[in-house]
Write a structure and sequence with these properties.
- By secondary structure, the protein is of the alpha+beta class.
- The protein contains seven helices and 16 strands.
- It folds into two domains: 21-191, Gyrase A, domain 2, CATH 3.30.1360.120; 240-316, Beta Barrel (Elongation Factor Tu (Ef-tu), domain 3).
- The strands form two sheets. It has a ten-stranded mixed β-sheet with strand order 2-8-10-9-1-4-5-6-3-7, sandwiched between helices.
- The longest helix is centred in the middle third of the chain and has 11 residues, at 181-191.
- It starts with a strand and ends in an 18-residue tail after the last strand.
Length: 328
């Protein structure tokens, strides 16, 4: 079953890959997992828990959603979609079990079952590979989540029940080859969409990783955990911290949650959201930091005198000063 984004990203400046693009193919993505919500009350339950408006979740469409603590800090984030049999939330695999356990605490008498199903998650790269997966999705029991293109390269998540052996066999028959997972990791970083992982839980309010720019927050839908803090961040004063793309030659990827330093003072001012090696061996990363620190220069502790190069954002990041508080 094919799912497309329910929210069109506000486009940033167009950019294409200058060097040779990765070849079409697929790879297993073990860093991602899925939570499943079934039962008559599942939509209403998630409407009261996640930052996105689940009531507006269209058939054959997915949207990004976050899950916050009472202090408005993100505990998880990822894509949400519904198949009619259940609602699914794709999140980082190192927090999936903890998220499921926490959400079960709030089910109470609601008719909802929260589970972590046995699935294989693949990253699909290139239009030809996506078309091959789409052609066998129904027969192979696959949910195909079409993502935004990165540097002109089409992408999708393929979520398969079981170990994904049936899909891999059908792709091999179609001539679609396996690719290194590092390529997918790099495309995810360059997409500008950061997933909350174990080392970054409770580090950010949603706007710090641009969740509202990605359609992941609905300020009109009503309450969710941390909603008051998130709303205050949006409407009272200017947002001073954002996640932006950065580049550095000849560096190894730092782990999510690692510190980022000010070039001028060498003080810790930011956090690595995600990082990956580019095909040419350089480093691309998503960095959360104050906008003022970006202007002054940021460095990694391993390279304290080499400023990170800020890259063109893949989407427009709104200025909350022009936002108008919605009427509820």
């Amino acid at each position: 079953m094919l799912f497309t984004p329910s929210f069109a990203l506000p486009e940033g400046p167009a950019e294409t890959l200058q060097e040779a693009a990765p070849k079409p193919g697929f790879c297993l993505v073990p860093s991602r997992a899925v939570l499943e919500f079934t039962g008559a009350d599942a939509p209403a339950f998630l409407q009261a828990q996640l930052t996105a408006d689940i009531a507006k979740l269209d058939a054959r469409a997915w949207r990004i959603a976050g899950y916050c603590s009472a202090k408005g800090r993100l505990l998880g984030s990822g894509m949400v979609w519904s198949t009619g049999q259940g609602i699914f939330w794709l999140v980082a695999s190192d927090i999936s079990a903890a998220l499921a356990k926490r959400l079960r605490m709030y089910v109470l008498r609601a008719k909802v079952v929260v589970s972590t199903p046995d699935v294989a998650i693949f990253g699909v790269i290139g239009e030809a590979a996506i078309a091959a997966v789409a052609g066998v999705a129904e027969a192979a029991d696959v949910d195909l989540l079409r993502l935004s293109a990165v540097l002109g390269i089409e992408r999708a998540f393929a979520v398969c029940r079981g170990d994904g052996a049936a899909l891999k066999a059908r792709l091999a028959e179609s001539g679609v080859e396996a690719r290194p997972s590092e390529v997918w990791d790099w495309l995810e970083v360059r997409s500008g969409v950061g997933f909350i992982e174990a080392k970054t839980q409770e580090r950010f309010v949603p706007q710090m990783i641009n969740l509202e720019a990605l359609g992941g927050i609905d300020f009109k839908k009503g309450c969710f955990p941390g909603q008051e803090v998130v709303a205050r961040s949006q409407y009272l004063g200017k947002l001073k911290r954002r996640t932006l793309l950065a580049h550095l030659e000849g560096a190894n990827p730092p782990l999510p949650g690692s510190e980022v330093l000010s070039l001028l003072t060498q003080d810790a001012v930011g956090t690595v959201v995600s990082a990956a090696k580019a095909p040419d061996g350089s480093l691309d990363c998503l960095i959360e930091a104050p906008l003022s620190a970006w202007a002054e220069g940021l460095v990694l502790p391993e390279h304290p005198q080499v400023a990170l190069e800020q890259l063109v954002p893949p989407y427009e990041i709104p200025d909350n000063e022009i936002f108008v508080r919605p009427r509820l």
